[in-house]
Amino acid sequence: MTMIRRRSVLGGMAASAVGLPVFAQDTVTLRFHQFLPPQANVPKLAIEPWAKKVEKDSGGKIKVQLFPSMQLGGKPPELFDQAKDGVVDLIWTVLGYTPGRFPKAEAFELPFTTGKAEPGSLAFQEYIQANAMDEFADVKLICTHIHGPGLIHSRNPVNKLEDIKGMRVRGGSRVINIMLEQIGAVPVGMPVPAVGEALSKGVIDATTIPWEVVPSVKVQQIVHNHTTFTGPKGLYTQTFCVAMNKARYDKLPADLKKVIDANSGAATAALFGRAMDEGDKTGMAAAQKAGNNIITLNAAETQRWQRAASGVRAAWYAEVKGKGIDGEKLAAAADALIAKHAK
């Protein structure tokens, strides 16, 4: 009996070593790597529930180990390649952390394009599946999603367009940085985890993050002014994805592939979008509790910002045309899907 069991174990080790598929009865451990602390909204309200559901749906055959705050090494811009190269099994990341890598996805980052995160994420997921799956050919795409309305958090109050002129403002993607230039700010690119320290040290004067991120980087304690806009759409949008190493997925037995597939796509995009929307409520409440100055620009002033940022679309159309991409057509497709899913 002992000899048979030992041979079985050794056989399993040998199969693993040569990259053969694991048997359905074996437990598969997947390492999920991302850049925010575990108490932040997306890890708490989306990644952890997703992992638990995968474990439950697999009858315990899949175990998902969560590694927040870049615990497995590297920097946030390296996460997508970590999944692509098999350094980790699963990642959640910001697409804009690797500028120019996802040009078709950038249609959703254009100024004043999206509003609430859940319907916007459903629109973005459908958009990617129809128009940009080639940008994710190197991974098994679990889902894509967006955050809620983008706003400005600043040391000095931003009551009108002129107030942001010359401000050093953190931007989270290439398109957001182009927008910041258009409205007269000085863009400074950096991932979210660096924002708190950069604000504290005066490296930047303001940051572009949604309400959802505010508590996790303690922005409400560092700056005391928050500028929002009239209407359902935010100043900017950040795009995200959850991705799995393709070879790791391919090696799964058929029943476990079905579990991953069932926890991919629109429903998962909506889960992450809901987490963002819930996080927006928490983030705004944190700023209110701190007694901060929350500014809502009126309709006329919001329109001034819209006009100031309108050149971003034309610039983006011209740029992606050089890559053989019809940006105008993609932006129209994005707008139509956002309207379709709007609540």
Written description of the protein model:
Helix content is 43%, strand content 17%. The chain is built from 13 helices and eleven strands. Helix 4 (117-131) crosses helix 13 (327-341). The relative contact order is 0.18. The model is unreliable at 1-24 (pLDDT under 50).
Key phrases:
disordered N terminus, single chain, about 350 residues, globular, six-stranded mixed sheet
- Poorly predicted tracts of residues: 1-24
Strand line-up in the sheet with most strands: 7-6-8-5-9-11
| Gyration radius over CA | 21 Å
Overall pLDDT confidence: 93
- Cα distance spanning the termini: 62 Å
Strand proportion, as a percent range, falls in 15-25%
Which sheet architecture does the biggest sheet show?
A: 6 strands, mixed
The helix count comes to 13
| Total DSSP E strands | 11
Q: Which structural category fits the helices and strands?
A: alpha/beta
Helix percentage range: 40-55%
Order of helices and strands: HEHEHEHEEEHEHEHEEHHHEHHH
Overall body shape: globular
Entry summary:
The protein has about 350 residues and is α/β, with parallel strands linked by helices. About 45% of the residues lie in helices and about 15% in strands.
How is the secondary structure organized here?
Layout: H1 2-17, E1 28-33, H2 41-57, E2 62-67, H3 79-85, E3 90-94, H4 117-131, E4 139-146, E5 151-154, E6 168-171, H5 174-182, E7 186-189, H6 195-200, E8 206-209, H7 219-222, E9 225-229, E10 239-245, H8 246-250, H9 254-262, H10 266-289, E11 293-297, H11 299-309, H12 311-321, H13 327-341
Parallel strand pairs: 1-2, 1-3, 6-7, 6-8, 9-11
Antiparallel strand pairs: 3-10, 4-10, 5-8, 5-9
Helix pairs in contact: 2-10, 4-10, 4-13
